[in-house]
Structure formats: C-alpha cells, structure tokens
Amino acid sequence: MAKNKNLIYIAISLVVFIVLAFLYSTPVFTGKQLFQHDIVQYRGGAKELLDYRADTGNETYWSDSMFGGMPTYQMGSQFKGDIIKQVDSKLNFLPRPVNYLFLLFGGFFLLGMVAVRNWKYALLGATFFGLSTYFYIAIAAGHNGKINTIEYFAPLLAGILLVYIRKSYIWGFIVTTLFMGLQIAANHPQMTYYLFLALGFLFISELIRAILQKAPMKHFVISSGIIAASCLIGVGMNSQRIMANSEYIKETVRGKQILTNKDHSEGNSGMDKKSILGWSYGRLETLNLFIPRLMGGGSQEPEGKEMMAKIQGLVQENISSQAEYNNFMQNFQEGFASPTYWGDQPGTSGPAYQGAIVCFLALLGFFFAWKKYRYWILGASILTVFLAWGSNFMALSDFFIDFVPFYNKFRAPSSILVVVELLFPLIAIIGLYRFFTDEKLTEEYKKKVLLYVGGGTLGFVLILLIFGKALLGFHTENEKTYLPPFLLDYLVDERLKLFRIDAIKAFIYVAIAAGALFLVLKQKLNQNIALIIIGLVSLFDLWSVNKRYLNDDNYVDKIFAENPFQTESSDLMAEKVQGNPNLEPILANVNVNKTLETIAEKDKTHYRIFNNILGTFSETNTSYFKSSIGGYHAVKLRRYDDVINEYFQVMDSVKVPNILGLLNAKYLVLGGPEQPQAIPNPKANGNAWFVSDLKFVESPNQEIKAIGVINSKKTAVIASSDKKYFDGKPVQADSTAFINLTKYQPNELEFKSQSKTPQLAVFSEIYYPHGWKFFIDEKEVPYIKADYLLRAVHVPAGNHHVRMVFEPEVIETGKWFSLISFGLFILLSGFGIFWMNKNKNEKVQPKAI
C-alpha cells in the first residue's frame, strides 16, 4: 500500500514539473517559438546540410556553407544506427524549452529519490536545480547542446550513487549506462568533462571510505568495475559521434597548433591560454551565486536602457564644446563596456545565480549531510569555483592547462560553475532531510549550526549592505581611469541601487528559510509546512530572477523563428519587430539578405561570397543563401583560423584580395546594411586551376606568409615535406590547359580537365586529411595540401575526369561499434533484470517441509 502511495506522489511530482515548465513558457500555447541567437546562426550555417538531407534523404558529412568548407560533425549531422540519439529525441518530446525544463526537473528528482528516498525532498531539490538561472540564460542564447547535456547530469549521478551508495548494482548499471550514453549523445563534451572532474572526488571519497573500512573494499572494487563498464558502454553507443569528432578535433583550433608565433608554438596541443581563459569569473563575482546583481548582473539588464538614456543627458549637461565632446568619446570608448555589468569578464548575458535559499541550505548541508556526501561535494565545489576564476587564479589554471589531459581543449572556464549548480541543490536537500529526520543529530547541535550559519549569512549580507560601496566599488579600473567623475559617480550609485535591491531580497529569503527551520525546532511549525514555505519562497526568488533573462520577449512568431533571414520588409513586419531587441536585426538585415538572395538566384554556379557588412566571421546570413568565406562556429579548422588571424584581422589591401582569390570569393558584399553593394571579384581563381610553378617552403610560417604575395593562379606553395609526391610526376606549363567543375554536391565534386602536359591542379576546396578521396578516370590517386589550406592533385596530360568524394571510413566503423554497444546494453540489462527477479522469487518461495 505504501509503495503504491509513493508511486502516486512520484507521478504527481512529474505532473508538477510539466505544469511548471509550461507555466514558465506560456507563449508556446499561442504557437510562438523561442528566438535563440545561436540557433539562428545554426539555421544559416546548416542550410546546405539540411537542404541536402531533404532533397536526397541521405546525409552529407561535409558542407561548403561556412569557412570555405568543413565537416558537419558539429553542425547537426545525423548518423545511421545512432539509436541512443533516437532515445534522446523521444525524451525531448515536449516543445522547446518546455522539454529542457521538464528534463532538468525530472532528472534531479531521480537523483533526489536515490539520495534521500523521499519524494518531498526530491521535489524540492528538483525546483532548486531546474530553476538555476544559468540554464535560462543558456536557453535564451540558444546553447541547446549544453542544456541537453546538463539535463542528464543528475540522472547520471543518480545511477552512480545507486551503485556506490545504495548497492543496487543492476539498476545502477542500467541508469548509469543509459544516461552516460544520452549525455555523450547531447554532444557537448565540455560539460561532460567538467562533470567528471567533480565525479573524480566521489571516486576518491569512496576509495578512502573503503580504505578506512567505512565500506567494504569488495563493494568498492565491484562498484567501480560496474561504473567503468557502464561508462564504456555508454561511450560505445556514441562511437560514430566520438570517433568522427576525435578525428575532426585534431585538425581544429582545439588540436595541435601549426604555426609558431607570440601566442603559441608549433606542435603544442589545444588553444592558447588567452583563448582558453577569455571568460574567467571574478573572485568576488562568485558571490553572484548568492546575490544575482552583486556585479550588475548581465551586460544587458532591463535597467540598462534607462541608464544609457540618463548617461546621454548627463553628457549634454556637462560637456559644452565639440573638442571636449571628442575627448570624452575617446575616453568613453576606452573605459566603458556596460551600464550594468562591471565584473571581470569581457561581457556576460547574466549571473550564475543559484538562489539565496539554495546557497544558505547548501552551507547548512555541509554540516548536516552524511559524510559520504559531504566531503566529496565540498571538494568538487571548491575546485570548480577555483577553476571558474581562470585568469584570476593562474597557479591552478596553469597547472590544469599544462598537465591535466584535455583541459586545454575548452574555453570559458566560468561555465564550469554548472557543477556547483548541480551539487549545491544536492547537498542542500540531503542536509535538510537529515535536519528534519535524523535523530542522531541532537537538537542542540541543530540550533547551534542554524544559529551560526544563519546568523553568519545574514550578518554577511548586512555588512555588504552597509559597507558595500567601500568594499565592492561598483566600477572597473578602466572606468575609474577614463570616465569623468560625473559619469562614474552616476554609474556607481545606480549599480549600488541594483545590488541593494537584490541583497535585501537575499536577506529576506534567507531569514524566512532560517526562521522556518528554527520554528520547526521549537515545534511551532509543522515540518511539511516548513518545506512548503522554503519551496515557494525559493521558487518565487529564482523564477523572478530568471524572467529577467528568459521571458515572453524571447518568443516570436513562428515565421521569424523558422526563417530569420527575411528578404522583404513590410509594415506588418516592422510592427511585430518594433521594440523587440531579438528581432530588430532581422529587419536591419533585410537589404543585405535580399542582395545575397539575388546573387544566388542569378548565378547558380559554385562559388563563395565575402560579406564584409555583417561581420564576416560572426554571421551565417551569407551561408543561408550561398557558400561563405566566413561563418559562425567555435570549432573551426585550424588552418582556416590561421588564415583568418594572419590576413583578415588586419585588412591588407593587397594580400587580402589574393586570399579571397584562392578561396574563390566570386562576389564581395560591401557597403552598409541600408545600401549593400554586390561587387563581382575579377581576381577569383575559380573552383580549380592548373599551376605551372611550385614554390617549396620549409615551414608552415613560410607557407602562410607566401600565399599572400604569390600569383596563386600560376604558382602553388608546397610544403617541402611533400616534395616526394612529385617524384616521377613532372609539372609543365600549358597555356591552353583547363580544368572545369561539372558537378557539385557538398560531399562530391566532379571536374573535366584537358592539358597537353602533366599538371598540378589546385582546388579551391579546404584541405582535410581524413575522408576525402580523389579519383582520376575512376582510379583513386593520392592528393596533397597546397597553399597552406587547399587540396591539390597531379593530373597527367590528356583529357580526364577528376572526382573528389568525402567518404569518411570512421562513420561506418563507428556505426558498428555503436550498434554492438547498444545491443550489449540491452542484453546485459535484460539478463540483470531476469536474474534479479529470479532471486526475488526464490526468496519468497516457501521452504519444503
């Protein structure tokens, strides 16, 4: 009876999660959709991939849409036999973002049930975790892969705890394997990596417990073996994805460096430290977990518009001459970044707010929780906070970048705080559960801890409220240096007001929670009522803060969400766009989009466009209509990124046109958003060309320097290591020779060539050493790299058919590993459940007399 009652409560909790998710996302009821910046960029960058899939029913693992061409492994490619991804799709059945919120709630509910085996605390913890502000900021930005990964954090940890803590080996194996597979399938390795850094503390904790005989060593060995097997099988289910990405990563900015310069040395692996540590959390900024606008919140807080209007008024009041104004503007641009945010990061969409009550209860949890949870959660939390500081704690960051495997593959260390956002709610509900139910904790001990932690927390907030201006400053060093006193004083006063509002709220929320706990100790308040009070106050707190960053303004009409690259404007569109900062770029870019569309419709051949209006390397509008020189992607091919840094950071009027010629930029889109100009580029080399000159160079640095100054239509720059390719393969000039593109698909190109002498054909296609195959008259031939980042092949004299096709073997190999791993999971799970039920039945059978 009790079991059935518990199942009813669990079912009710799941319904509550669905209701909460829909209530937060009410615009979905009217058919509106989230407008997410990164998803808009994805729609543009993946257009060629999506069109190819729709037209052919097949998948292309290469697309020419961005950066001259790149694999699609990080652009939403689909893999045959990818069963675990189909499971992920089924779990995310609700409309976005309801699906994410429901799974964040539901996943932590499972973790809570494993940790404390009580639905009330699991429900409370689920709201603590599922309403973490960072998740809503990430959803608003369109970091769907990140959220998809994080939603499987809690259930994966639940599976591991089932094995280590609950000794439920079979169910623990099933849950761990399934959610390990789903986590990898979500395809955000950085988040998974950070989680496993924290899980390392759990492993060490269990090992120490076994050594100290707090738990049997046999159990530790068996549990560790089960978890290791679960993780291996979960990874194995994603073999295609992992193998393809592993192959790809080696050739990207996350792989080995090719050039030697001031930032890095040839052969070093990963990104340079400056790129890795770009978004480092400030030390004081960590308190944003407790007070959201301790440092102003986000760079674009709602109050920011009013502050900017006031700043303009102050400038008019205090500056009288043009010379004074010019000097002010120069200093203003140097010293000012945001009216609200004044932290250590270059900018931010919002704080990693965890909730005042959650942080307070987490502090209590470190005193009340069982030791088997307390120490590893504390250690993991401290490490992740320190790592989030990045450049503000270089001793630790240097160590991890230089010595900890794979850490240098990831940037933006501030995002590691997602681990704290998982662990604080967990330790909070464990501590709360023991506070209310564990008779081993004396009333005197509870009162003492509650007094010290509650009083200390409230006292800390009071100190900040009274002395905050002196302690926190509310300005950056740049602002103090460059801004005039009238403006600096205004900014400090306004930021202080924002801080005080949130600090007072934090004080009130903590006081309510501490008061409720104290009244329970005094037996003047029922435990359940106290839980409801804590839950509702925390819900109100997090909900109201989250609405600053993900609210109704983030939802737009379906037409804008699904086709953000509009080419026609109208009064109706202007009316819908007006006042919505998310949609204003759509209207502003209409003329540029129309220009791009016109180019694509008039010239249907294969070429690329250089768009210098919208930010070449931070937009995908161009890619939506035609192949682009630029694009928007965090994991670019290393060679292409090197060329961007070498030539496009400083626009040399002689060298840049040479590079655009190599990349077959047939059209340049210049001017401004209102009156864009499409200019044909006479220097475009075309899709392929024959060269008569070979320039051998000794180093990558010489190679990349040379391509900016040579006549690339006649000369190819070749690495000296490829000299052997030309043994027995002469290259001779023939002014009548030609090679023309006859067929284009993103993963297969065909050319017709004619020459009287042997030639080296250079293709305006990005070099990638894995998966591309060349055929001359259907006979496979080797190819090499030319001009630092292009493909080239030796073509004999005569008339020939040249074909290149992208057929990565890793996809087919990975498919079988994925299928075998999933089959092994089903087989072992089925056997385990059968064996468990058999033993259960044997235990209840009466013994023979």
Number of strands: 18
Could you give the distance between the termini? 31 Å
Chain-averaged pLDDT: 92
If you compute it from the alpha carbons, what radius of gyration comes out, rounded to the nearest whole angstrom? 30 Å
Task: Describe the strand arrangement of the main beta sheet, using strand numbers.
Answer: 11-12-18-14-15
Assign a percent range to the helix content: 40-55%
InterPro entries: Uncharacterised_YfhO (IPR018580)
Keywords: Membrane, Transmembrane, Transmembrane helix
Protein name: YfhO family protein
Transmembrane segments: 7-25, 98-116, 121-141, 147-164, 169-186, 192-212, 219-237, 352-370, 375-396, 416-437, 449-472, 503-521, 528-545, 816-837
Walkthrough of the structure:
By secondary structure, this protein is an alpha+beta fold. Helix content is 55%, strand content 10%. It has a five-stranded antiparallel sheet with strand order 11-12-18-14-15, with no helix packed on it. The protein has a four-stranded antiparallel sheet with strand order 8-13-17-16, with no helix packed on it. Strands 5-6-7 form a three-stranded mixed sheet, sandwiched between helices. Helix 23 (485-521) runs antiparallel to helix 24. The chain starts with a helix and ends in a 5-residue tail after the last helix. The relative contact order is 0.11.
Observed structural traits:
849 residues, 5-stranded antiparallel beta sheet, globular, 4-stranded antiparallel beta sheet, alpha+beta
Short description:
This protein is of the alpha+beta class and 849 residues long. It is built from 33 helices and 18 strands.
